[in-house]
Amino acid sequence: MEGRRPRRPQQHLAVTDHYLPTVNRSLGPAAMPNPEIRRVVEMLDENATQFALPHIGWHHRDQGIAHVIAPELGLAQPGMLITCNDSHTATNGACGALAVPIGGGNQLRHVLATQTVWLKKPKRLRISIDGVLPKAVTAKDVILSIIREIGVGGATGYAIEYGGSGISAMSMEARLTICNMSIEAGARIGMIGPDDTTYQYLAGRQNAPKGADWPRALAYWATLPTDAAAVFDRELRFDVRTLAPMVSWGTSPEDCAPVDGCIPDPSRISDSDRRRHIERALDYMTLTPCTPLQQISIDRVFIGSCTNSRIEDLRAAAKVLEGRRTAVPGIVSPGSSAVKRQAEAEGLDRIFRDAGLEWRDSGCSMCNGSNGELVAPGERCASTTNRNFEGRQGRGARTHIMSPAMVAAAAVFGRITDVRALLRD
Amino acid sequence: MLPFTVLTAVAAPLEIAKIDTGMILPGRYMRRHRRPGHDYSDAFLHDLRFDEQERPRRDFVLNMPAYRDAKILVTDVDFGCGSSREGAAFAVMDFGLRALIGPSFGEIFQVNCIQNGIPAIVLAEPIIQDLQRQLRQRPGSEVTIDLPRQTLIAPDRAAYPFDISPLRKERLIRGMDDIEVTLQLRDTIEGFEARRQVMYSWLPTARRE
Known about the structure:
The complex is a heterodimer. Chain A contains 14 helices and 15 strands. By secondary structure, chain A is an alpha/beta fold. The radius of gyration of chain A is 21 Å and the shape is globular. Chain B folds into 2 domains: 171 residues, Aconitase, domain 4 (Alpha-Beta Barrel), CATH 3.20.19; 33 residues, no CATH class. Chain B has a 7-stranded mixed sheet. At the A-B interface, helix 1, helix 3, helix 8 and helix 9 of A face helix 3, helix 4, helix 7 and helix 9 of B.
């Protein structure tokens, strides 16, 4: 902070998530044998104390991934401006907040010192999602199909508002998944106008308005949704009625296809940038053009991350795994300690364990492996996370991103599997 | 922060599309406590520059002798997409680069670079491809970035104007810290805070103060 003090320390929340181990926490610091990792965790403790910042540290009852616990604790509310030094901050936009990722150095220091953030007014992009989702097709498949369509730079410079009948019908948790991956389409901001689903989700949460404050807040929130006549710089529509579960095959989130599809053939791509990218991606992923996706064998699975680690995600995965055994190892890391408690109350932990997966504590874990929990070089991982970049889950690791139910199905057969076939009653 | 005005330096062409911030600074380096003599210079694009045995890959552009002193990198599309890690900008800086030129950049990364005194300049793709071709054909060629005039001069002396917001330009040229700029608006901030307490009294952050 170069001698400066935070301007409004009580308006901040320090959350330990990326560097925490998801096993052996009861050992204390010994659970972090890597001194660099331990130092990062300790430094956040020290900084939070030094600057009097509220802190959810690693033994806190509410510990979890920042973007999972902010909505869960009722901290993300409609009309708020929220910043966090993490690119998936837009997750909180599902609560009707303007949630903006910032850099962890200069920009975070700036927010602490001034309680403000400089923003260039973004262009406005409305994405309307229409129709009812088919069975076993989820918010994750919707957002992946959008990213596939518009590309990882498709929404750069825009703030996205998601709307349409598909969004109206979605639970808050599904909406959080949609907004979470706005950055994978290039947009720093993704949001959904507040509605009854938002209000019902917020009501009664730890930091939600209470008593006489509730109707006052509600009256204000009702003024926030976009006017019917509002003009956007760009409008896109997606019909999800015939959408299939999506799977990534390459090294960019836009490199994905419906599970019944095939690996693309770069020789048939006319755009030279795209062709070079696909060639490089298939080389890294050791995949052959035109292979059906369901022939790809996997070595392990990861269920977790700010994209897909909430209770509905765990229920969806457990539904597939119930009464089955997995063919490959894997870990399940709930998005927060509260999600973990809830899952255990519902017996989901037993289902995961009985199926052969590890039931872990909450954190960012293997999504990017900053806590040292990595996919081994050359290993292929089916993952509920948001990024499949080269080396994202570990050097030489090959990531296939998909929904929690699809990861569970892949775990059962040891290869990419169409979960719709498993859930056909 | 170092001011940036006019720079003439060797430029290197990096012809790989969509290099994300995790490739610019692999996650395992983010926990390194960055300090003089132990910075991110070796971490920058590490897995592209070095093989599994930590040997420099000879065919990688930044390992070729002609480009070793490059202070400018001419990138491909969506350079710096992905995670918001500011370390990626630190890595660019620690490696010794002073400017990036490309057809498009990840937005957060671009802001992070500018905040650290490194302009990430956008030019149309055909211009970038031509620049990369020149740099490839004549390794060690120099490019000039004239920030006050918002002009880039290619090795073949062709001049190209580029856009940058007046605010960002001013800060880069003066090497000015954002916090100082913002705190000049203290009255506006305090006025907002007072109104906020009254109008949005239910906010948990308002109640706590």
